[in-house]
């Protein structure tokens, strides 16, 4: 996925408002509540809590195939 300014703004708004986000990575969908964007390993990581398990999840933005803000 190419992260346009509009897509990053939607993701940042979801973080600020505590909205759920569905992310597709490596062909698998993950629903999480994002908490922050962090710079690490030469790129950006999305950090959040998995909606089903409550586990902390870190996803490299360059691994994301698509995302949708669920509200």
TrEMBL record:
Protein name: Uncharacterized protein with PhoU and TrkA domain
Organism from which the protein derives: Longimicrobium terrae
Organism placement in taxonomy: Bacteria, Pseudomonadati, Gemmatimonadota, Longimicrobiia, Longimicrobiales
């Amino acid at each position: 996925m190419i992260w346009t300014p509009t897509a990053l703004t939607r993701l940042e708004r979801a973080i600020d408002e505590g909205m759920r986000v569905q992310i597709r990575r490596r062909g698998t969908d993950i629903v999480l509540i994002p908490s922050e964007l962090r710079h690490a390993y030469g790129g950006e990581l999305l950090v959040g809590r998995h909606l089903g398990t409550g586990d902390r999840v870190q996803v490299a933005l360059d691994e994301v195939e698509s995302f949708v803000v669920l509200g």
